[in-house]
């Protein structure tokens, strides 16, 4: 069994002061003389005293901790977001509690309840499904501060996120403007109900008066490199004349690029490939990926601003707000005007 933690009583016995004086001194009370505070602080350090944060949080009704739930810690964008959130919260005096749902809705619910049991002051959540949010709406209805890091204006829950619909619209429009009329998309909305990218894709086609063709829509098994490779393999097998493809992530785009390299499909001459999120891996690929930029810094700061404002709000939470950051395109070597040869 480990050594028992030092108590206020132990410090009082060592210094000869009362427990109340020791408590006030360690809290920096101006009522305690400097010399007394110094003696008590030295004794606390010698005894390796640690304040009881649980008891303190019960008195103050806050733990200065915020939960962050990710869908996939191996996703490079989410890893970068986690780091940015931890750094920003630390600057503001908060501890970050991490959890990963592994895109499992039931595990997501368990993680939410776990953070509540640990009395986290609020939560930032990447939900598994952008549409099935009743459990999070119920959380907010109980005046619990929660901010989603993806969302849509009608969710009824606070959210700060990239406008993925606008990002897909811009990317597909760019390809169409460069002569591509057979633009494919790797669309995972059937699995997760996250329709923003496919909606933006269809909007861009309609704006350019290009007919939607279901044969150009491939449902990948995920968003990783392997899934991108397999989706490109499925698209190639259909032989539907695609000359460009928009992928759900840069990781999937790297898989598509790998398939093309292995099978003699020139990028971008034969197949233009557009990624999503603008990761370091995509930027430094053998053929650098064009991508929709995910402004991690801006989104992180806005999300933390919002969740802290909810934590500090008096009474019932204010009306939910959804802030969507419109992304820019980063054009690199994997896309080019449609070749005439």
From TrEMBL:
The keyword Iron does not apply. Residues 6-60 form the HTH lacI-type domain. Pfam families: LacI, Peripla_BP_3. It comes from the Bacteria. Keywords: DNA-binding, Repressor, Transcription, Transcription regulation. One of its GO terms (molecular function) is DNA-binding transcription factor activity. Transmembrane segments: none annotated. This is Putative HTH-type transcriptional repressor ExuR.
């Amino acid at each position: 069994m480990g050594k028992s933690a030092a108590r206020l009583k132990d410090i009082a016995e060592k210094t000869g002061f009362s427990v109340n004086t020791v408590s006030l001194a360690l809290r920096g009370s101006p009522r305690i003389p400097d010399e007394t505070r110094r003696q008590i602080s030295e004794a606390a350090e010698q005894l390796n005293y640690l304040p009881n944060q649980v008891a303190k949080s019960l008195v103050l009704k806050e733990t200065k901790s915020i939960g962050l739930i990710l869908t996939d810690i191996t996703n490079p964008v989410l890893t970068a977001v986690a780091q940015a959130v931890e750094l920003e919260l630390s600057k503001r005096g908060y501890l970050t509690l991490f959890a990963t749902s592994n895109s499992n809705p039931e595990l997501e619910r368990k993680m939410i309840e776990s953070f509540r049991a640990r009395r986290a002051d609020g939560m930032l959540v990447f939900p598994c499904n952008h549409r099935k949010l009743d459990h999070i709406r119920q959380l907010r209805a109980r005046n619990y501060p929660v901010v989603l890091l993806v969302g849509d204006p009608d969710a009824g829950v606070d959210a700060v996120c990239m406008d993925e619909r606008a990002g897909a619209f811009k990317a597909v429009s760019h390809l169409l403007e460069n002569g591509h009329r057979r633009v494919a998309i790797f669309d995972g909305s059937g699995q997760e109900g996250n329709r923003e990218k496919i909606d933006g894709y269809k909007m861009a086609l309609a704006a350019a008066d290009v007919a939607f063709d279901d044969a150009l829509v491939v449902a990948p098994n995920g968003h990783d490199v392997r899934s991108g490779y397999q989706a490109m393999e499925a698209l190639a097998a259909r032989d539907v004349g695609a000359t460009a493809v928009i992928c759900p992530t840069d990781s999937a785009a790297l898989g598509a690029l790998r398939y093309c390299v292995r099978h003699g499909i020139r990028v971008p001459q034969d197949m233009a490939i557009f990624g999503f999120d603008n990761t370091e891996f995509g930027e430094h690929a053998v053929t650098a990926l064009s991508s929709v930029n995910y402004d991690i810094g801006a989104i992180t700061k806005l999300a933390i601003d919002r969740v802290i404002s909810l934590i500090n709000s008096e009474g019932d939470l204010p009306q939910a707000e959804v802030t969507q950051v419109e992304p820019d395109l980063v054009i690199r070597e994997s896309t080019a005007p449609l070749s005439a040869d």
